[in-house]
# Entry
Amino acid sequence: MEFVRAKSAGFCMGVSLALNKLDAIIEEKGISGDIYILGSIIHNPQVVAEYAKKGIITAAVPEDIPSGSIVVIRAHGITKQVQQALADRGIHVIDATCPKVKDACLLIEENTDKGRVLLLFGEEAHPEVKCLLSYTTGDTVVFDTLEECQKCDLDPARKYCLAAQTTQDKHVFDAISRELSKRKGLDLLVLPTICDATRTRQDEATKIADKADFVIVAGGYNSSNTRRLAQVIETSGTKALHVETADELPLDDLRKLKRIGLTAGASTPKKIVDQIQIVLESL
# Structure
């Protein structure tokens, strides 16, 4: 059986920075019961569980964080209103939002300040999308597919800007951009908000899919960028399986294959990818 592993598999820059900030505050303050995260620091249950064992508290809502404590903002960001409310309560806020998300927030703020309506390609319930929307100063339209975009009734008398959740599929985003550009008289500015690492990871996944009979995609089931990698691979015509750990691999089925690919989401630890590789190479 042949095996190929994506070079891009594992933590992206934004995830590494967020975890480094959390590790730094743990080293500085120790575990005193007053270090919180508002929501999962990254979308990987195994990583979150490791920090819970260290005494880090994951708060579901801002009200669960006591005044005077420390809160580390998740890599996906939080709304600017919630961040300000935390600071107003005397909570020490350490912002571990991915720089690419921050850049997208500022681009959206800058262009909606100029009167443009935001057209956002993203998952409306996702924490990052909620963060991005909090920087708008006008009307917004959110959609998650090209088909939803096609149904949008847009007024040609208004100006628009198109942005995307940073981990969205670049090829779908480009198709949306082309679709909107066909609309007669529409004043549209396309904002480059999809992360370079996302594009690289998706492009490499497609190349691996072209060479493999089957591709394993490792990452948290709550990770949108991991789910999207599996979708990109499936769209290319190769079957993909999304797993969180090596324990979930269907070994009997995999033994029947000749060429297996392996990639991973941006929030998947290297050690999990390594464990999956060890199992695959032993088949």
Observations:
- The two ends are 7 Å apart (CA to CA).
- The mean pLDDT is 95.
- The chain has three domains: 2-10+197-281, 13-98, 100-194.
- The CA atoms of residues 40 and 209 lie 30 Å apart.
